[in-house]
Write a structure and sequence with these properties.
436 residues; alpha+beta; Outer membrane efflux proteins (OEP); four-stranded antiparallel beta sheet; 4 strands; elongated
Length: 436
């Protein structure tokens, strides 16, 4: 767990290494409850195969019994009342020779294990996405707070200027009140931004399973995101329908449903077993007036042909067919969904790259605007309110640019996720965008 040791080191030595995406992901792998539940489910499903294979192996039982007998006999051979005990014990064994349903049960278990493996991969992929989202949300909230505080500083300077100008008679009370109103609004926005940071940190700590160091690695500026290759959106959609883990999982569901139809149909199939037993029996008396002590060994074949089971097999088969139809329809839905997800992620990423470029130009323009407005204030062609507006535009442009970068990084990762299998190296590539 990411402990507060980092904070203690910081207090002793004055600095601490920033926590990055890989640090948080590794903590989440061991601490996140959702991923732990998926892993436990994966381990549980592994037991289905030995359970199914056990149906092919012999079953051997040790059996024993004791009876108390009270007999009133009236026959040619014996008359009178007798009380006596009897017992028997022995070993019985059954070796399945032909049970087609057992073979299908093993196939089903293997399909379930493959499905569970895919589900675990999906859980790991979702964990990476949630880590990136939680991490970027904290950085985004900090950027928003920095923006509000920059606005607060600018507004406070203008408020002090308005007060001085009013005291010397070069400004009206209206100018001072307008500056005060803006300052009060910025204070309210600051409180909201501080709360957003607390909420984002709570989400990050929930993912990591405990306290997270205050020092998170920020973006490494300038950020350069490469355009997706290939540049054809239809190829990305095709890749998603072929390689998406959601599609793979849905295809496994169809295969399992098909196997269950076959399994249930075989519920009425004949079976052949090799059976054997070795039993020792003893009775202290009998209706004939004498006891017995016998040992019997039996080996034979047993054929069983189900003739009527109350319609259970037919009902279970119809249920399995309906489940197969459902899984086939789910597969079609997932195909459409991942196609749409791939289109959205591709468009968000490509649009995000263009938006970053546009916002970088806007940031440069607002800087020039601020410089010009300040110069205009000095020569008397601009007012203090104009300067305040220009400073606000600059801080908002900076905030929007960072927001576009976070959105684009997330869209890039989502595009990778919907079109294939994410591994830790993919998260490491994203991590390179942040200062180490």
């Amino acid at each position: 767990m990411i402990r507060l040791i980092a904070v203690l080191i910081s207090s002793l030595f004055g600095s601490v290494q920033a926590v990055d995406l890989i640090d948080l992901y590794k903590e989440a792998v061991s601490q996140d409850a959702q991923y732990a539940a998926a892993k436990a489910q994966y381990l549980a499903v592994q037991e289905l195969l030995p359970q199914a294979q056990a149906s092919r192996l012999p079953k051997i039982n040790l059996e024993a019994g004791y009876d108390y007998n009270s007999v009133d006999a009236d026959s040619t051979f014996s008359k009178g009342h007798r009380d006596y005990g009897s017992y028997e014990y022995g070993v019985t064994a059954t070796q399945p020779l032909y049970r087609k349903q057992n073979d299908v049960a093993i196939d089903l278990a293997q399909l379930e294990i493959i499905k569970a493996t895919t589900q675990l991969e999906i859980a790991n992929q979702n964990l990476m996405l949630r880590t990136l989202l939680a991490y970027s949300n904290v950085l985004r909230a900090r950027t928003n707070l920095d923006t509000v505080r920059a606005q607060k500083l600018a507004v406070s300077e203008q408020l002090e200027l308005a007060k001085r100008n009013f005291s010397v008679g070069t400004a009206t009370i209206t100018d001072q009140r307008e500056a005060k109103a803006r300052f009060d609004l910025v204070l309210a926005e600051e409180l909201a931004a501080q709360n957003d940071i607390r909420v984002a940190k709570e989400a990050l700590q929930e993912l990591a399973g405990g306290p997270v160091s205050e020092s998170l690695a920020p973006l490494k500026m300038p950020v350069k995101l490469e355009a997706p290759v290939p540049s054809d959106i239809n190829l990305w959609v095709q890749r998603a329908t072929e390689q998406s883990l959601e599609m793979v999982l849905a295809q496994h569901e169809v295969g399992i449903a098909r196997a269950r139809v076959q399994f249930n149909r075989l519920g009425a199939a004949p079976t052949v077993d090799l059976v054997g037993s070795l039993v020792d029996s003893y009775a202290g008396n009998s209706t004939f007036g004498s006891g017995a002590d016998t040992t019997a060994g039996v080996v034979g074949l047993r054929l069983q042909v189900p003739l009527f089971e109350g319609g259970k097999v037919n009902s279970e088969t119809r249920e399995a067919i309906s489940q197969y139809d459902k899984s086939s329809l789910d597969l079609e839905y997932i195909k459409r969904k991942v196609s749409q997800d791939a289109r959205v992620a591709y468009l968000n990423y490509t649009t995000g790259i263009a938006r970053i470029d546009a916002l970088e130009q806007a940031l440069l323009s607002t800087k020039l605007q601020l410089e010009s407005t300040k110069l205009g204030l000095e020569v008397g062609v601009r007012t203090a309110v104009d300067v305040l507006d220009a400073e606000t535009f600059l801080s908002e442009a900076r905030r929007d640019m960072f927001g576009a970068i976070y959105d684009s990084i997330l869209a890039k990762f989502q595009l990778q996720a919907v079109t294939g299998r994410l591994i830790e190296a993919d998260l490491g590539a994203i991590n390179e965008l942040f200062v180490q």
